Each structure stands twice: as structure tokens, then as C-alpha cells.
Structure prediction request, 483 residues.
Amino acid sequence: MTADVPSSCSCPASDPWSSRDSSAKRRAHLIGIAGTGMRSLAEVLLGWGWELSGSDCDAGPAEFLAAEGVRICAGHAASHVPEQTELVIHSDAIPADNPERLRADELRIPTCSYFQMLGRLMASRQGIAVAGTHGKSTTAAMLAEMLVRAGLDPTVVFGAAPLGRNSGGRPGRSELMVAEACEYRANFLHLRPQHAVILAIEPDHFDCFDTREQLESAFSRFAASLPAHGLLLVPHGCPAAARAVAASRCRIETFGLDPAADWSARDVAGKRARYSFAVFHRGHYLCDAPLRVPGKHNVANALAAAALAWANGVPPEQITSGLGWFRGLHRRLEAVGSWRGVVLIDDYAHHPTEVAAGLQTVRRMYPGRRLWCVFQPHQASRTRRLLDELASSLQNADKVVVAEIFRAREPPRQPGEVAAADLARAVGDRGTDVAAVHTTEGIVRWLETELGPGDVLITMGAGDIRRICDGFIDRLREDRAAG
Prediction:
């Protein structure tokens, strides 16, 4: 399967949705409102005075919006779409035969996808897009923090929630707009940013891109979409990125730890996986960057965010302040708590590069402790294509448990298709201690008997694996209440 240029939405070419005038009352219905990106979009629209309703199979994560006046419906039904709705927005997970999309067609209500809506909002603003296989949400959040602290009042939309918040949405009043630009289905081609970064290019979405050439072609089209006066940042020394930007008209600058990069991180120092470094631009010192978020991979994310912040008018002292204040995101090496003396961490990692980086970071955070990893593969297609890489990436854990594959956007498992047991076997073949249990209930029972005080447990995956950590925390609260 290949990803073609995204189709257009049913909104008229010249419609009110892209206007920066927020004084008019507008009404929209969001199908799939509980998704992280859709929740962020809802926060932005609410902040601009829109009247919203929404639905989702599991509406729980969006319940906080009800307190802000959003009518939240559980499940999907034609009756959930108010007749006075002026626009229906749906996530990529919502198929064309969804009853609410069909109802919108019946009522002749314009419809568009999440990324089509972001494109329309960015059309009348100075857009900054954060693209790449890894680190998009973190880099977008870092950049937003610096822009906000500099008083530039940006609009921000990305698919994760900062710690202490329910979403990554921020309604701004200036012309600046920061958005996470995902390559899935070539959705980033809906955006027309002035400035952008490509953090990395690695095969990931195998239900969209059969080959690396198809993937790089999508990134090439994204790079070519930037205007001649724009700025595009790419990793220094990355052949895939160099090929992708070869035909771009805009200014290209590189970033990385190599002093030869246009933007370089120098004097990198770390303690217990938290790093600081000096930001240099074309050999000239700009500022210091002390990071609170763990992981050496976040040095590159922070450097890219600093470069984009500088390009959009953030002074050096606010770059330092913003990066030093940023606390991180939910599900990005998030310290969930502890249970019976076991440290609980949750992470969104589902690609081998991310898994390896996450485990390496936790090792440095908790040296000398036993590290347990419960990994939930995300999609059978990704698991099959990256089986060996995933097995190798899990080697840094002392104990590994592979949960059943989270089949996002995929039909039920067919006979002979890759399963959790196949990945577990590949992990064990490499010498790592791996458990022969895969169901959530079985994993929890196994952990209860095997974990000990001082151990570190990390749950990893883009699905619902966090519920294991949450379950332990809930039981701790119950025990305390009962005791």
C-alpha cells in the first residue's frame, strides 16, 4: 500500500474555517474526540469561542471537555450529530461508513479530517511544522514553551499532553501556529508551513509505505511545499533527509552534535540521563540549554526546537528558560509512581529506535537496578517488518514481557500471522530473559509474583499498555484507603 497525496475535504475552497476572526460563533462536531490530537484541536477551537460536540468509542479521555461545555457522546450514532452543526471533523481512525459521517452527508454538513482542519487553520497563519519519525510531540511542546515564554502567543496543536494538562492544544491570538506534522497517509501534505523541521526519516507506517523510497518521496513532497523564504531544519549527516530535501526551494539548515552542523549542541554533559548543552549557530555561541526531561535523544529534539524558536524571534535567554522549565509529556518516559517499592514508568515507544533509546535512558536514570520491560507491539504489519530490530532493541532490559499486539487500524489476527509469541521468541533467542505470558491479565499476575522492591518497571507501546501501571497505582490507593 502506498500513501498518495491526501484527498481534499468537502469544505468549500473559500470557507470561514481558515479565518483568524474568532468573534463569530461557529459549531463543529468532532468524531473521535478522545484521541490526543483531536482533544488538542478541541481545546484550540473552544478557546476561540467555538461551540463543540463530539463522540468516541471510549469517550473517557475527553470528559474534561464536558466541563468546558462540550457535549460528549459515548459510541457512534447518527443522532450524535446536532442538526445545527456547521462542520464535522473526524480523526483518521474514523471510516467513511461511520454513522456520524453518513449523517453529516445526509444533512449536507461539510466534513474534513483532523489534518485537513489543521491545514485550513494554518492557511491564514505563520505555520511551524514539526515532522519526522520520532520526537515530534516533544519537540513541538518544547518549541511552544519557548514561544509562550517569549510572549509570542502561538496557537499550538500536537498529539500528546504536557504533564499537568489534558491536551497539547493552545489557542493563541498571534499569527504563529505550531503543529505536529505526521507522515502517516502523507497527512503532513495538508499543511503549508513557513518553517519546519524533519527530525528523522525511518520506516514506520508499513500500512502506508511499502518501501523506503515511497516514504522518502512523501517527505520530499513535504519539503518541497515550503516557500522559498521558509526555513527547513534537517539532521546533520542523515542521508535520507539529504535526499528528501534535495529539490526544496527554501533555506536548509542542519542540526546535530557534530560541530560542522549549522546548529550544533556542544559541551554536552549528563547526569542520571538528564543533559545540558551549549547551543551554537554556525560556530557562534547562542545560549545554554539545561534539560529537565531525561534522555540523550532529547538533546537533538531540544536543539531543533531552539533553532526554530530563534528563527521566530525568541531571544537566547527565553530559549534557555523555556527548555529549562519544560517538564515533559504524558507517556514520554513518564514517572507514573511506585508500587510496593517498584518504580513505575510509562512510555509511548513502539519503534525499535525509540525502544532502544528509552531503555538506555532508564538504565542511566536508575543504575544498578533490575529493569523490567512490558512491551506491547503496535500493529502486526510493523511487528512483522521490524521483528528483528524490535527484538534487538529490547536487549537492554533484564526481564522482558511481550504483550499481545495492539491491532490499531487492522482486522483480527489471521492464522499464521505474526503474534506476540514470535517477538518473545526472537528476544529470548538473543539471550534476554523473556516471560512466556502475553495477555494483560496474565502479565499482571506474573509481575505480582516476580517484581521486588527496588526494581524498575517500564511499560512501552502506543496502545493501551499503560493500564498495567495505572492498575498498580489504583490498587495502591485502594490498599491505603482500606488500611
The first helix runs from residue 36 to 47. The chain has three domains: 23-113, 125-325, 334-482. The mean pLDDT is 94.
